Every structure is written in structure tokens, then in C-alpha cells.
UniProtKB/TrEMBL annotation:
The keyword Protease does not apply. It is found in: Nucleus. PANTHER family: FINGER DOMAIN PROTEIN, PUTATIVE-RELATED, TRANSCRIPTIONAL ACTIVATOR OF PROTEASES PRTT. This is Zn(2)-C6 fungal-type domain-containing protein. One of its GO terms (cellular component) is nucleus. One of its GO terms (molecular function) is zinc ion binding. The keyword Zinc applies. InterPro entries: prtT (IPR051089), Zn2-C6_fun-type_DNA-bd_sf (IPR036864), Zn2Cys6_DnaBD (IPR001138).
Length: 722
């Protein structure tokens, strides 16, 4: 990470915070008005992805709907409070002309005033109907407005139109399966991984039920589950309560139980390291540990959600008693970019202690919530902790953490042992955040390393329930957006070689994701939400090109013995796909280079660094091949009979673009564009070098990788010093 004064301990500038780095309260989570704005038609391989035009259309639509500017009205308190506000013992305020109150609208709940208005006299919602009776503080005009706009359904903020469209898609999908003679019923014994709805071969050509839908998730065996009807964290699962372990334990005395079953059913949270920590071992003094823990709270605290009203000293006391591992993790990560003199003395000792404590704690099941918070940090910043003697595989570690979490959830012990002074709502929010962070980092490393996830879509679907919590923030919404996007990309990558069937599905999924979450692009400090979208789109395009190459060469699954090189795959790609990959790779590198503060760049998660690195490497390779094509004026011909479709599936039906048009094969890159692309990558390499803390540091390795590919593809290129 950038070469900076490693002794700096200042807080990150608030103006440089990103969507994953801020905890601003969300004023309106996923309302239908936010979702229903005009978006351009997005097509895989189409380089004309005009996000600026989408934003302009949104502003124009908003201006036309609002009409002439109106005077701001003073919010009035309701004559009576709705059920939710009475339960929370809070004031109930009107919200514009809505029947529902401000609090219910902000947290995405259906207000009891809305339910009463809809149920009154069972009046059908058509024009001319007037509602009579008690309307709370919002009046009869507001009640009649409810009948003339999209309605929200209980348990979510999706409009009635969206609900009906989902039902229609599901019915169409069922009919398509029934009409297909070759359709085979799927059984629970199927070994197929759970994919997005419609991504298997039986339903490949049927309408898509987006994975981003807030309410339903399709799991293995074809069963569809309503997320809103699922239990929340904190209660034992019915599977556990009816398990042979429970039958065994309830039928005999505890002495008749084997020790592992005793520990599982009646856990004793006594860490191996509970008798010692980095202070009692005299690695750090109490003051040094407190200072480092404060730096950790400032830079990385959003990932563990320490109570804000707790002082650093209070948190340190709790961690020493309950989970010394988390204290060691926090101090070690904070010291990486802090006092260089202290780091030289104790950093290796901290890593050694961390390794011993982690190995001991991993064998104890179940574990505390603080232990899971420690694994969150270790997974997100695993490359930063790793050395020759201690390496962390974030995919493996996050998978272990998820299994620990699932164990606690099944036993119904997730919400026990709440700290004194921490209210139940915040404790529940923290628990959901730990699950969401583990799910996201695990899914990210499934994509980065090409391995499969240990949890299915039902597990990912549970993550959305955090949006129902009254104290969820914009940060939580952005986490769900990231998780939804990576799930779309992961499902496509894991879909095998059925390129023709999977491509239209992932195209629709990405379009739906952008419709649902694209409003985040207009918010301040959005670069990493938008960057994630471009990175995901790029990964889909490259994976699609790779699979096309395998199908073209008739290599199939046997290709693993001698996989084609990146250059071979890209040289096979058509011009349109090349330009599309180039566009998205440029966007990713630009987003990372736009971070002005080197210290903040250093604190970014390994996920951001790896996404930027892979995009930069591909940007250099793409620029090299496109530049060569410009000089030779030759490109691979399009095989119109290919089963993979290559270009055909990129465009929606009815497009005026002709597949036989030679303009699709014309490609070129000016010297100015080529120089700009190489300069972007060289700048990123220089930035990694500036923030590196040694030759073996991950940032130093990233810089070396970019320099290597620059020298290989452009031997005469001389980069400027940034």
C-alpha cells in the first residue's frame, strides 16, 4: 500500500469514506420510488453502458414528477400513534402525503395506519372511492392517495406491481417446465449446486426470477422459501430440537453423554488464551494496547460494530476477559501502519501469539460472538496478516467462521451473553452484521479463488433480514447490495459450460441489480459500489469469453489438464467483447486511483486491492492485444454457427444490430488511449509500492505483478513516477 509515513495514526478523513466505510443512517431503505427509475438497456459486451445518461434520466424524471417547487411543510405529530411507534414508545410523525408515518417509511415497514385504511369496509381500490372513518393524523385525502399508488406489502418495501410480476414469472416458469417433455423432477438427493432461479438447464429459457428479489429464495430440490416467514437469529432451529442429539440428551442424564456432545449442548466459553493475553505476556503495555485498539476502532471498527458508548478501555477489559484473540487481532492490524519503532520490536511476537491462540480456539465449538468478530477481521485482511511463517486463507477461514456461526444459530445461543449496557436491538444488529460480513467475504473469495461456497442461497437470503431492523443503516444496505451483486457473478461462474443458457440469465440479473441498487451511484462516496458493479460485469464477460473458447476448441472439462493462457483466451475474443472488458476494467482502476488519501488507500480491504489488481493486469493485456489488432487490422472471425452464440446472445431480441455487420469486427486504439491505459496501471503500481511495508508485503507483491505484466506486454514502456 502507498509509501507513506508508517508512523501515522491519524483517523481517516471522513470525506474519503466509501459506501463500505460509513455508517450514515439510512433515510429510506429500498423504497419502490427509489427502485423505479429509468435505466439504460444494459447488454453484455455492449460498450455503450452510459451510467451518466441513466443518472440524467433519473433527475429529469424526478423534475417532471415534482412539478413546480413547493414550500416545505412542517411535519406534524399524529393525533394518535401507530402500532410500531407505540411499541417503540416514540413520537409518530406524518410523512408527506402518505398514510404511513415517517418512522415506518424510513425502516421499510408497513404502517398500521395503511393496514387499517386498506381493510376499512373492504373497499376496492378504484377511482372515485372515498374512505370514511379514522385516518390517524393524515386525513381522508391521504387515505385515498393510498389507493392510487403502488402498495407496499408486509415484510418488505417492494411494490404491488413487483409482487405481481414475480408471481407471473413464477407461474410462467412452472408452465414452461410442465410443457417441456425432457424436464426432469429435481430431488433432494441431487448433487447440483444451488443456482440462481432459472440458471439450470431445465429452466434456462424461462423468465428469470431475480436473485435480488427481496422475498423468495429457491433452494436445492426446487423448493422456494419465503424469507419473511423464516425464523430470525436467537431461537433454536426445529432441525436441532428434533435431532438425535436432542433425543439422546433428553432421554438420559448428562453423565451418559460423550464429552463432545456435552460441550455442544452446554457450551463453556473458556478460551485457551483466557489465562493470558498480549498484556499479561508483556508483549504490549496496557497503554500501548489501548492506543492501538483506538486506532483499530477508527480505521476498521465498522466491521465489528463495537458499541459507540463504550470507551476503548471498557472494550479492552471485555476482550481480555472474553476473547483475547480479538484484542490481539485488533492490535496487530492497527500496528501494521502505526508506530514503526514499536512494530519492529513486537510485530512478529504479536503474529506468533495470534497464530497460537487461533489454532487453539478453532478446535473449540461453539465459540463466542467476539471470536467470530475476530475471524471477520482475519478474513477481510488475511493478506495483511500473512507472513512466511503464518498464512491465512480467507476462503477457508471465513468458511470455518460460518460453520461456527451456524452452530450457534442452531443451538439458539447467538443472542445470549449480551454485555451489560448493550440493548437487545444493537446486539441483534451486531449479530446480523457479523453474519453478513462473513457471507460477503466468503463469497468474494469464492470468486477470487474459483472455489465453491459452503452455504447456499438460503443462507445468503437471511442476510436481507437486517434491513428489517429499526437501527439498520445505509452501511447495512450497501453490504446487501454488494452481497447480491457477488452472488449473481458467483452463480454465473459456477454454472458450468452452459454458456448459451446462462448468459441471458446473468444479463437480466445484472440489469435487475442495477435497477434495484443503482441509486447508490448518485450518493456521495459511492466509488466502491460502482466499482464493484464494473468488476462483477468484467468477471462475467471474461468468464463467458473463456467458456466460449473452450467450447470452440472442443476441450470441455479436459481443459483443466492444460488450460489456455490469458493471452490465448483474449486473442480468441471478438472485438465487441474486448472493448466491453476494456471499458469495465478501466472503470475499476479509475475508481481505486481516485482515492486521494494514501493512508486511506492502505486501510482498504484486501478485496478492493485484489479487484483493482486483477483489473489492472487484464487492462494491460487487453490494451496489448487491441493495439496489435490496430496495427495488423486483423481480428478473429465470428463463427455464426457456433453453439455458444458469441455475439448473438449479447443483444436483446429485436435489436437493429446485424450479426453480419463487419463494423463489429473493427477495432482500434489510438496512441493517446493506449498511453492513458498504461499510465493508469503504472499509477496503481506506484501506489501499492508507496503503501507497502516491506518486500514481502502483499502491496509490494501487487506492485511487482503490475510491473511484470507491463514489461512483458510493452518492453519499451517507461512509466512515470507517481
Amino acid at each position: 500500500m502507498p509509501n507513506q509515513d508508517t508512523s501515522t495514526t491519524s483517523r481517516v478523513d471522513e470525506t474519503t469514506r466509501t459506501p463500505l466505510d460509513t455508517d450514515r443512517p439510512v433515510s429510506r431503505v429500498l423504497t419502490i420510488s427509489e427502485l423505479q427509475y429509468t435505466q439504460p438497456e444494459l447488454q453484455l459486451g455492449n460498450i455503450n453502458v452510459n451510467l451518466a445518461e441513466a443518472k440524467q434520466n433519473k433527475r429529469k424524471s424526478s423534475t417532471e414528477d415534482s412539478g413546480a417547487p413547493q414550500k416545505r411543510k412542517i411535519t406534524k405529530k399524529a393525533a394518535k400513534a401507530c402500532n410500531e411507534c407505540r411499541k417503540q414508545k416514540s413520537k409518530c410523525f406524518a410523512f408527506n402525503n402518505n398514510i404511513g408515518c415517517l418512522r415506518c417509511s424510513s425502516v421499510g415497514r408497513v404502517c398500521s395506519f395503511e393496514e387499517e385504511a386498506l381493510k376499512r369496509d373492504n373497499v376496492p381500490p378504484h377511482a372515485g372511492i372515498q374512505l370514511d372513518g379514522d385516518y390517524g393524523a393524515f386525513g381522508p385525502s391521504g387515505a385515498n392517495d393510498l389507493l392510487n399508488r403502488p402498495l407496499r406489502m408486509p415484510g418488505g418495501t417492494v411494490g404491488m406491481d413487483s409482487k405481481l410480476q414475480t408471481i407471473q414469472r413464477d407461474v410462467s416458469q412452472i408452465l414452461a417446465i410442465l410443457k417441456t417433455p425432457s424436464a426432469k423432477p429435481r430431488t433432494e438427493a441431487s448433487s447440483e449446486p444451488a443456482l440462481i432461479v432459472g440458471s439450470n438447464e431445465e429452466t434456462a429459457n424461462t423468465p428469470v426470477t431475480p436473485i435480488n428479489n427481496l422475498n423468495h429464495v429457491r433452494i436445492k430440490g426446487g423448493m422456494e422459501v419465503d424469507i419473511n416467514s423464516m425464523r430470525t437469529f436467537g431461537k433454536p432451529s426445529s432441525a436441532f430440537l428434533t435431532s438425535p442429539y436432542m433425543i439422546y440428551s433428553s432421554s438420559c442424564s448428562e453423565n451418559a453423554l460423550p464429552i463432545p456432545i456435552q460441550q455442544l449442548l452446554n457450551p463453556v466459553y473458556s478460551s485457551v488464551a483466557s489465562q493470558r493475553d498480549i498484556i499479561t505476556l508483556k508483549i504490549l503495555s496496557a497503554d500501548q494496547a489501548s492506543t492501538l485498539l483506538q486506532h483499530f476502532r477508527d480505521r476498521y471498527g465498522r466491521w465489528v460494530s463495537f458499541p459507540e458508548k463504550f470507551t476503548t478501555e471498557m472494550i479492552m477489559k471485555k476482550l481480555r476477559a472474553r476473547c483475547p484473540l480479538l484484542l490481539t487481532v485488533a492490535c496487530t492490524l492497527a500496528l501494521k501502519y502505526s508506530d514503526p519503532y514499536l512494530k519492529k520490536q513486537v510485530y512478529q511476537l504479536l503474529l506468533h501469539t495470534l497464530q497460537i491462540d487461533l489454532n487453539a480456539c478453532m478446535l473449540q465449538i461453539p465459540q463466542s460472538l467476539e471470536f467470530l468478530q475476530a475471524l471477520v477481521i482475519l478474513s477481510i485482511y488475511g493478506l495483511s496478516f500473512s507472513s512466511e511463517s503464518f498464512t491465512i486463507d480467507a476462503w477457508y477461514l471465513s468458511g470455518c467462521a460460518l460453520q461456527h456461526f451456524i452452530t450457534k444459530d442452531s443451538l439458539g445461543t447467538l443472542l445470549v451473553n449480551r454485555d451489560e449496557g448493550v440493548d437487545e436491538e444493537f446486539h441483534k444488529l451486531t449479530t446480523y452484521r457479523v453474519w453478513n460480513h462473513l457471507s460477503l467475504v466468503h463469497l468474494v473469495y469464492c470468486i477470487l479463488s474459483g472455489r465453491q461456497s459452503i452455504i447456499d442461497e438460503l443462507g445468503f437470503g437471511i442476510s436481507r433480514k437486517i434491513l428489517e431492523l429499526p437501527r439498520s443503516t445505509n452501511f447495512d444496505g450497501r453490504m446487501i447490495a454488494e452481497l447480491s451483486l457477488h452472488l449473481v457473478v458467483y452463480n454465473f461462474i459456477q454454472s458450468g459450460n452452459t454458456v448459451r443458457e446462462a448468459l441471458p440469465i446473468v444479463r437480466d440479473e445484472l440489469r435487475y441489480w442495477l435497477e434495484q441498487w443503482g441509486y447508490l451511484f448518485d450518493q456521495p462516496a459511492n466509488e466502491f459500489v460502482e466499482m464493484g458493479y464494473h468488476y462483477g460485469y468484467f468477471m462475467v464477460l471474461y468468464n463467458w469469453t473463456y467458456k466460449n473458447h473452450l467450447n470452440k476448441m472442443s476441450m470441455g472439462e479436459d481443459a483443466a489438464a492444460s488450460p489456455p493462457s490469458i493471452t490465448t483466451v483474449l486473442e480468441y475474443a471478438d472485438s465487441l467483447s474486448m472493448r466491453s472488458m476494456l471499458y469495465h476494467a478501466q472503470k475499476v482502476v479509475d475508481a481505486v486511483n481516485s482515492v486521494e488519501n494514501d493512508s486511506y488507500f492502505a486501510f482498504l480491504s484486501n478485496q478492493i486491492h485484489l479487484a483493482a489488481l486483477s483489473s489492472a493486469l487484464m487492462l494491460v493485456n487487453l490494451s496489448s492485444i487491441i493495439a496489435k489488432r490496430s496495427l495488423s487490422n486483423t481480428v478473429p472471425s465470428l463463427d455464426m454457427s457456433s453453439s455458444s452464440g458469441i455475439i448473438g446472445d449479447i443483444f436483446d431480441s429485436g435489436t437493429s444490430t446485424s450479426l453480419g455487420d463487419d463494423s463489429l469486427n473493427k477495432i482500434g486504439m489510438s496512441n493517446t488511449e493506449l498511453s492513458a491505459n498504461l499510465a493508469k496501471c503504472a499509477e496503481l503500481s506506484s501506489r501499492f509500492r508507496r503503501v507497502s511495508t516491506g518486500d514481502d508485503d502483499s502491496a509490494a507483491k501487487f506492485s511487482m505483478a503490475i510491473d511484470d505484466v507491463l514489461n512483458t506486454c510493452f518492453p519499451t514502456y517507461e512509466s512515470k513516477q507517481y
